Amino acid sequence: MRTGLAGGALAICLLVAWTSTAGAQVTPASAAEIARGKYVFGATGGCGCHTVPKGPANAGGRKYDGPFGTVYASNITPDHKTGIGSWTDEQIITAIRLGRRPNGERLLPVHPFTVFNGMAEEDLKALTAFLRTVKPVSRQNQPKKITVPLFESVFLPAWLAAFAPKETPPPKAPPSGLARGEYLVRAVGHCGECHTPRTMTMASDNSRYPTSRPIATPGSARGRWRRSPTTWAAATSPTVTWRVDSCSR
Amino acid sequence: MLEVIEGTLAGYKDMTRADLLAIAQYLKSIPAVRNKIVK
To answer: Is B2 on the interface with A (CB under 8 A)?
Structure first.
């Protein structure tokens, strides 16, 4: 009886996931893939940049100030009009790891696509499958406000070509050990984005990866900074002597 | 960071112990960097 109920519930979940993506070219996902996608989603930090605290999950609207102006996180719920519900799987994956919208528009690297490019295809597919199961929220994206002339047409492409990290995706996600840890830190968890100081060009200073860097307080005025905490690789931190098993909890 | 991930459907807290240990193992393996944090 329980098996029957569980099977019925699973079928309903899959049906909801399928119907919510009607119109988009999507591959029907298995329950296992959706569960894997939720895990990957968590390992990215829950795509937390796309959720306003206490607001609807993944609905966007969070404000980020930078030296170029202000951007607002996009709605990544599967809403067909205001979110990513009408996007194909490939379009979602392209946005995540190459920073391009379906119309070709470039995302600003506030979305860390340069490091997400190091994610394995299987994890990106699973993540996409999970994103389609989230409750759709109708919330129009707020246009960015760029204050630097020629920023998107000239400066950003040049900066990306010259300074952006070029992660190479592994053929498969490493299953365990040091390689797994590196994969989770560098690509999925994108830890270096906050824990690595920036150079004058705003590129990551990889000679100090991943120690600390000033980060803008979400929603703050430009120029107000606070420091991200150092990781325990920093020699100035007593945690450099932490045992591996004490760092995981 | 708590503020950043508040309200999400899943997060680092949901990672398996094996993955957290793998992260710890990797972070312990990279070169130490002296970078005094100014508060």
So the answer is: no
Q: Give the span between the Cα atoms of B31 and A231, in whole angstroms.
A: 12
ipTM of the complex: 0.87
> Is A180:A170 a contact under the CB 8 Å cutoff?
no
Terminal-to-terminal C-alpha distance of chain B: 16
Four-residue CA torsion sign, A211, A215, A193, A188:
positive
Q: Judge whether A8 is closer than 8 Å to chain B, CB to CB.
A: no
Contacts of A211 in chain B (CB under 8 A): 33, 35
Which tens digit of pLDDT belongs to each residue from A227-240? 343 333 333 333 33
pTM confidence score: 0.77
How many CB pairs lie under 8 A apart between chains A and B?
Answer: 144
Q: A23-39: string of b/e by CB count within 10 Å (b at 16+)?
A: ebebeebeeebbebbbb
Distance of residue B7 Cα from the nearest chain A Cα, in angstroms:
6
- In angstroms, the CA A228 to CA A211 distance is 9
Task: Please list the residues that pair with A63 across neighbouring strands.
Answer: A72
| Beta carbons within 10 angstroms of residue B10's beta carbon | 21
A21–B contact, CB cutoff 8 A: no
Per-position DSSP letters for A180-192, written without gaps between them: HHHHIIIIIS-TH
